[in-house]
Amino acid sequence: LIGDMLRQEGFDLVLLQEVWSERDYSDLKAKLGGCYPFSHYFRSGVIGSGLCVFSRFPILDTLLYQYSLNGYPYMLQHGDWFCGKSVGLVVLAWGSRPLCPCSCQLHAEYCREKDAYLPHRLVQAWELAQFIRHTSKAADVVLLGGDLNMHPEDVGIRLLRGWTGLRDAFAEATRFEGCEDGCTLIPNNCFTVKTELLPFPLGIRIDYILYKAVSSFTVKCEELKTTTGTAPGMDIPFSDHEAVMATLHIRRQGQAADGNLGTAEPTLVDVVTEARTEVGVGLRAAQRQRYSTGRMAVLALLLLLLQATLGTLAGLAAGQPFPKLSFSLLAFFAIGILLLATGLHLFHTIEVKMLQGTEEQLRMALRTLQEHP
Amino acid sequence: LIGDMLRQEGFDLVLLQEVWSERDYSDLKAKLGGCYPFSHYFRSGVIGSGLCVFSRFPILDTLLYQYSLNGYPYMLQHGDWFCGKSVGLVVLAWGSRPLCPCSCQLHAEYCREKDAYLPHRLVQAWELAQFIRHTSKAADVVLLGGDLNMHPEDVGIRLLRGWTGLRDAFAEATRFEGCEDGCTLIPNNCFTVKTELLPFPLGIRIDYILYKAVSSFTVKCEELKTTTGTAPGMDIPFSDHEAVMATLHIRRQGQAADGNLGTAEPTLVDVVTEARTEVGVGLRAAQRQRYSTGRMAVLALLLLLLQATLGTLAGLAAGQPFPKLSFSLLAFFAIGILLLATGLHLFHTIEVKMLQGTEEQLRMALRTLQEHP
Question: Does this UniProt record's set of keywords contain Transmembrane helix (chains A, B) (predicted)?
Fold first, then answer.
């Protein structure tokens, strides 16, 4: 259904996420070969983030950046860790100049009231913003499309937009057609979980097309559309998220665009400060978990040592009745806990390092904003 | 000793690797505050790669890229996996323009004859090359310094140099002073393993300073020096590797430098083909390991199911003597194998994905080289 629609619409560029199976990608590639002769599939993590790009323009080069944090491997029911969420950049031969659109996905939000993944998503938003800043220095136009898993007013999206100067196609569009408020996760899509959307009767907007002109170009979003639940003439939708489609008008004209930072500095200082606070909260939680898993590993080791001592004593006092079965079971239990706790301790050590690194970078960003406004 | 030497020499820029402990970094920072007022420490992995930068110029921004493959967590005796090897980029305010030097380290080579880590190091060399290409598009001058763990003639370094156009300061230097052939791992350093250097009586050169001018600048290496074993007036060396020190003359002058690719295309095609072959060898090895760990997990699961069935039968036929101890031990053994094999299977799945991704990118690079020379 998605392939039919893409073939029919004949876009210049398609950025897809969550194409989990490479088989699906190959099928799409075969189906779309006529109108989108160039495509790329980004591989990452165990399952992959399912990022792929179909383009009418030749793909010259690609770059994948995997976020350093992406949830927890033991949260099997969420599974984000296994996807290796990332941002994929492609360089397209667009006329005589390169165009570098990015496709990306961030960690999902499973509970808005008590969002345990907020610090990870903020690290990802920051890494995404830094990736875009550093790779787009020679670009004329920056395009970012994807499932950011953030509401428009969330600190992560304000950080991303403020730090990169990217503009939101929905807010800038001259014409809009689609779901109310541009929502992309709506209650009357049969694949969405209705209870999660109860506080948001219209749905939420978490899929974005962002853009900016860097050098002497201007970009204007002439039209933005979303799909609206079911596919035309069918009773099932294309996907659990609504697709976002933008018509962008790119002109070589006008003044050189404004510098690196798009929004007014004082607001940006507030946003970076807010993000730093949230990352700090995550850092302290990660430090607590690192401590408690480390303690558990030490306790398991002590239990093993105690057992070894008792076992030796029992061996010396031969002839005494000795509960072999429960003794061995306990030893195996202790070994299991030791291995598990050590693994978790290593994982939370990495988490602490990355959160510390991001907090320091945010501190550096604040200093730069204040010293070189 | 390192701090004293750096303070005495008064360089513009210092790129360090393997500063494992943050405490050591803090000590260096305190000691060097006077001559290098700006510094940054990059955090990654469990231990960290120990990358840090000391600079006379203000640091405006930083970016860390962790390689997607870096050895195996179960190779505890090598431990590279725990370091999260990476490349760190800093943006310096260099006069009125930014200068972006990178500090990096690649996976170590433990056995040259049977180098199991070659595919991983090639993936890293390729990711490093891509990272430099994509982040240096607006730079005037690119500088890369680090422990690349590759001999000058190795395919990885030829790929990195060919694909980025970086030049080797040792080969270009007008004057050279230091260890013969510019070696940085030499037998008469008391920290090196003498047996590993037996085939190389002079030592090997695995630490590099690479550079290129991108826009209308020229860079010339006027002098290159290495330390030579022991520190002056002492009987111990600064480190197990010799330090590399370059005096670079950067001038705004001359023609715009040559394009993206530095060496002649036909050679580069050969290098990329060679790298692709090696990555392909690694891919097939990883696929075999993924298969065998998956099979082991399935066998462990079957053993557990068999035990559960036997246990139920034994429970039905009560009164029979039943070997509880060996039965429980076997069950715990099977659970242990199941968990371990599943973990390894996931790890090798990620390895296969990343090797496939790199192989495809190298194929795309070959096509680009052939179509757009």
Answer: yes
